[in-house]
Design goal:
By secondary structure, this protein is of the alpha+beta class. Helix content is about 35%, strand content about 25%. It has helices at about 10-15, 20-70; strands at about 75-80, 85-90, 105, 110-115, 120, 130-140, 140-145, 155.
Length: about 160
């Protein structure tokens, strides 16, 4: 049986690892693939920020209406909107609220909120003080929430 003879120079070449060309090729492919997927990742991240803000607004409005209808603390319940946050409160207005019962929710500073200043739900009936559309905006991407005459918050 004839076995191949490996010379000293060939043995060093086998232990050498990757060539510079191979490393450059792998790095360039990784950069190209990463560059192609980055816009999709950013778009997904922005959509998630808007979805989370929309869910928080809906939850706060629905909780305020449910608490008002159920007569929790025999008082009106409301939601006050700020530039990048909201506060669910107990009382006839934000100024007359019981600050110990406030529930604050912050949004990303990238999201702007266009909404009525505050929505207060009447006790036991759940009728809102304001109706209309709440607009959440993130660089042109928008989510709408509509408050109906009956107080239902719909996305």
């Amino acid at each position: 049986m004839n076995l191949p003879v490996i010379f000293h120079a060939d043995r060093q070449r086998l232990k050498g690892g990757f060539t510079l060309l191979e490393l450059l090729l792998v790095c360039s492919l990784a950069l190209i693939i990463g560059g192609m997927t980055l816009p999709f990742g950013i778009a997904f991240f922005r959509a998630q920020l808007l979805n989370e803000a929309q869910a928080s607004v809906l939850e706060s409005l629905r909780e305020a209406q449910i608490y008002a209808i159920s007569g929790k603390l025999n008082s009106a319940q409301g939601v006050r909107f700020f530039e990048h946050s909201l506060v669910r409160f107990t009382g006839e207005s934000y100024e007359e609220r019981d600050t110990g019962l406030d529930h604050a929710v912050a949004f990303s500073p990238l999201i702007s909120v266009d909404a009525p200043l505050e929505v207060v739900y009447e006790p036991f009936s759940g009728t809102p003080s304001a109706t209309g559309t709440i607009l959440l905006d993130l660089d042109g991407a928008q989510r709408n929430i509509v408050i109906s005459d009956t107080g239902s918050a719909i996305q």
